[in-house]
Each structure stands twice: as structure tokens, then as C-alpha cells.
Amino acid sequence: MAALSNIVSVGQELEYPLKHHRMWQLFEFGQNIPNYIAFPPGGIDFDQLRKFFDERGGLISCRTFRADDKGRGPFKPEQKDWDAIVGFVKETNPNYFSLFNETLPRADNIYQGTIRISQAFQHVEMQLEYLTGSGYGRDIEHGDIDTLKTAQRRLQQPWPEWVPEILRNRAFELTRFHWIRPLIVEFSYYPYPVGMRKSRFLCWEWRKG
Fold first, then answer.
1. Which of 65, 118, 156, 183 sits between 20 and 30 A of 167, alpha carbons compared?
2. Are 131 and 81 part of one and the same domain?
3. Residue-wise burial string across 2-37, b where 16 or more C-beta atoms lie within 10 A, e elsewhere
4. How far is CA 120 from CA 18, 53, 124, 162, in A?
5. This protein's superkingdom (predicted)?
6. Same structural domain for residues 164 and 140?
């Protein structure tokens, strides 16, 4: 976690913190997040990255983001070739923050999707969009999906009976997380413990809606 501790405070004073700090906020709130390591632009430490790569069984995903956190940076999922990772980092780290997280088997997912928390006058509203089976929460953003399930409710209203209890409970918990509205949390639910807290429900990130 040394590389993370070096930059976890970078941007935390911002109204909308940078990606690595938003992930850490979820962890501090008590949610489970993937194991990850992050470096500022021009600050890569290949020894620390190699240690993280080996600890994760030689399989990681490589993400990048800008200081203003706008737009999508280059992304390399599910990388197991160390030389290819080094090449990607040398190309991108001079201009981007670098974030590397453990890769979890998408085929093992039970649920994946997003929880959206919004505010309408005095009412807190929750919306669930999720898939069952193989995939990632971000798949929802890529066009129409026949198997997508959607449910929405206000805080004091009951969920439809078909919504899994674990998703109902986590949506309720996240109504108390952060003041930004609308707020979206991307999640996955696995049949076995994963992530930093070794639990089945995992939050990949939160972002503005």
C-alpha cells in the first residue's frame, strides 16, 4: 500500500475527488473494494508494481485517469504479460495517474451493476440496474442488454420482491455515503470472498451521476 499512501491525499480536498481517493472513501465507509495500487503522473515505482503484480497471481488490470478526472484514459484489462504492462505504463504514466487493481473472474459473478442514489425535493431515491451471471457493471453502459434488470424506489418504499436482499441492503447503506447527488456506485457480487475486506459484495468505484 506504500504507493497508494503516497497519493491517497492528492485531490482529497476537491469537491469531486480523484478516482483513487473515491475508491478509498468507499473503503473508509466500510464497503469492500478491490485490492489496488496507484501512482501519480511520472511517479511510477516498478518494484512496487511488480510486487503487487506477483501478489495478485500475475494478473491485473491497468487503468489511467487525468488530474482533472475528465474523460476516459487508456485501459488494459486482465493483463498477465509483465513486459506488456511495463510498455503500457511507460507510454501512459508521464501524462496520467496510473491505477492497477486485481482482476476477478467475470465468469464467477452472480450480480453486477450500478446503484444510483439521487435526491428529489425531500425524497431520497435509489435505482438498481444489474445483470446476473458473467460480466462487469460497466457492461450496462454499452448499449441495450436483454438481461438487464432495473428497479427504483424512494427510501421509505418497499422494493419489488424479486430484487435480491443483498442488493436492497447495500443500496440502503449507500444512501448514507457522501453528499454528492446523483451518485453512482458500480458493484459486483461473487459466490466467495474477494477484495480488501474479503467479502462477497464489492464496490469498484463511485462517481457523479
1. 65
2. no
3. ebbeebbebbeeeeebbbbbbbbbbeeeebbbbbbb
4. 26, 44, 6, 25
5. Bacteria
6. yes
| pLDDT tens digits, one per residue of 163-173 | 999 999 999 99
Whole-prediction pTM: 0.88
Last residue of a domain, one of 102, 135, 169: 102
- Give the integer Cα–Cα distance in Å for 65 and 93: 10
Could you tell me if 133 and 80 lie in one domain? Answer: no
How far is residue 29's CA from residue 208's CA, in Å, rounded to a whole number? 17
Listed residues 102, 134, 154: the one ending a domain: 102
For 17, the grid coordinates are 475527488
Number of domains in the chain: 2
Per the structure, the complete domain to which residue 190 belongs is given by 106-208
- Tell me the per-residue pLDDT of 131-155, one tens digit each, with 9 for 90 and over: 988 766 666 765 556 678 999 999 8
